[in-house]
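Quick one: structure for this chain?
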Amino acid sequence: MKLPSMSLTLKSFFAFSLLVSILQVHAAGFADSQEELFMKHVEAGNLGEVEKLLDSGVNVNFKRSGDGGTALIIASGRSHLDVANLLVSRGANVNLSNQNGWTPLMAAVSRGSYRIATFLLEKGADPNSKHIYGWTALKLASQKGKDDIVGVLKKFGAQK
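Got it. Here's what it folds into:
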């Protein structure tokens, strides 16, 4: 009986290792694509698709790579109240910030959305959180001349 040559065995091993590596990369890419798809549907305000992806197990507090933005920050900044409500009902943290300290409340205020700012405050958003440059939601609202939002922020305890 003839034994396989050593070079053939090594070639098989390396081919198998390469195949395993490729499969791992594709599996990781699939997981990321589900979360990225989730973020795209949040951004577009596709409530039904967001709900389906949450039902399939996507993390409601997923932070996207790069800026660390969350689905609730995106929904709040896009004035998608129905999506924001779904996210919060599924456990989204109303105070979870991105890597710069930007919160869902700051996103809503920056957009000028009184309804979402009020909703987030009612759900426990901290009106005194500061981003890395020291700005609060109150300072953002004042800078934009959003007196209605300034009023609701103060009602919920905003200081500066």
